[in-house]
């Protein structure tokens, strides 16, 4: 699948682990929910409500759910391995809660590695983001020596270094203060606007401060 993704539809979706439980009212589970390219969405959940599971379902790394997820009109269970590789390189960007940085590599090398895979060559923009997020003095530090808040900022920059129609951000600012949250939100908003993309953030507590986001409760 190489064409642009304009909609993600969640049709009666439910994690299998929840199948025998009585679920509280949800705007996503067991409903028909459509997420559109260009939109801004905040998915809120209590701890254990399944937000990271939902992100993993959408990105195709887990399939332990009932119901169907569609990209445009395509059931994602029918997408080939090569198709998923293309989607993850050029259609859906993803920042997992676990961050996934290589601890032995420097902050800038973690970013460059993703930029090379994603065909992103605007390193001047990367340096601007590094400066905006106060990481100039940490760009050459091994990621494993950075604080968790610094690691989140590095991982956020890294997630932007590819084309995308949708960007999924799982607890992207849980360790950032309000000032850095606002800067991160501005960076993501501006980049998504340039790409005409949707922003989907997942949060239990401190959300990315994107204005006018549609709130959806799990």
Structure, described:
The protein has 218 residues and is α/β, with parallel strands linked by helices. Helix content is 33%, strand content 22%. The strands form 2 sheets. It has a 5-stranded parallel β-sheet, sandwiched between helices. A 4-stranded antiparallel β-sheet has the order 2-1-4-5, covered by helices on one side. The protein is globular, with a radius of gyration of 17 Å. The protein starts with 6 loop residues before the first strand and ends with a strand. The mean pLDDT is 93.
Poorly predicted runs are none
Helix content: 25-40%
CATH class: Alpha Beta
N-to-C span? 28 Å
List the helices and strands in order: EEEHEEHEHHHEHEE
Class derived from helix and strand content: alpha/beta
Q: What is the CATH architecture term?
A: 3-Layer(aba) Sandwich
The CATH superfamily is identified as P-loop containing nucleotide triphosphate hydrolases
Number of strands: 9
Per the principal axes of the C-alpha atoms, what is the gross shape?
Answer: globular
Q: State Rg.
A: 17 Å
Q: What name is given to the CATH topology? A: Rossmann fold
The tally of helices reads 6
Beta content comes to 15-25%
